[in-house]
């Protein structure tokens, strides 16, 4: 069983730029967000963070911005 098989909700295609700030840091990491679902999204970045890392994420589209706290699954 792959990680895709274990998702608790369906994901839909989506693409937007994102900025990740790891908890306790002021370092901004560029990323892309895709595959949105009720329980999360896929974040594509050069150096993945460890599972359980707490982050602040800012997702930006052409018309909207979303900022949230999140944990790496």
Quick overview of this protein structure:
The protein has 73 residues and is mostly beta strands. It is 0% helix and 55% strand. It is globular.
Q: How does this structure look, described?
A:
By secondary structure, this protein is mainly beta. The chain has no helices and five strands. The chain has strands at residues 12-22, 28-37, 40-44, 54-60, 65-71. The model has no long low-confidence stretch (mean pLDDT 88).
Task: Jot down its keywords.
single chain; 73 residues; mainly beta; Thrombin, subunit H; five-stranded antiparallel sheet; 5 strands; 0% helix
Ordered list of secondary-structure elements with their pairings:
Blueprint: E1 12-22, E2 28-37, E3 40-44, E4 54-60, E5 65-71
Antiparallel strand pairs: 1-2, 1-4, 2-3, 4-5
- The whole-number mean of residue pLDDT values reads 88
The helical percent reads under 10%
Order of H and E elements? EEEEE
Distance between the termini: 17 Å
Question: Would you report the number of β strands?
Answer: 5
Q: What share of the residues does DSSP label as strand, in percent?
A: over 45%
In CATH, the topology is named Thrombin, subunit H
User: How would the global form be characterised?
Assistant: globular
Order of strands side by side in the largest beta sheet? 3-2-1-4-5
C-alpha-based Rg, rounded: 12 Å
Return residue spans where pLDDT drops below 50 for at least 5 consecutive residues: none
What structural category do the secondary elements indicate? mainly beta
CATH top level is Mainly Beta
- Number of separate domains: 1
Per DSSP, the total helix count is 0
The biggest beta sheet reads:
5 strands, antiparallel
CATH architecture descriptor text = Beta Barrel
């Amino acid at each position: 069983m792959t990680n895709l098989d274990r998702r608790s909700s369906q994901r839909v295609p989506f693409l937007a730029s994102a900025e990740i700030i790891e908890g306790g840091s002021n370092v901004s990491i560029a990323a892309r967000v895709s595959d949105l679902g009720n329980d999360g999204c896929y974040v594509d970045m050069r150096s993945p963070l460890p599972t359980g890392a707490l982050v602040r994420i800012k997702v930006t589209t052409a018309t909207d911005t979303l900022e949230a706290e999140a944990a790496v699954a």
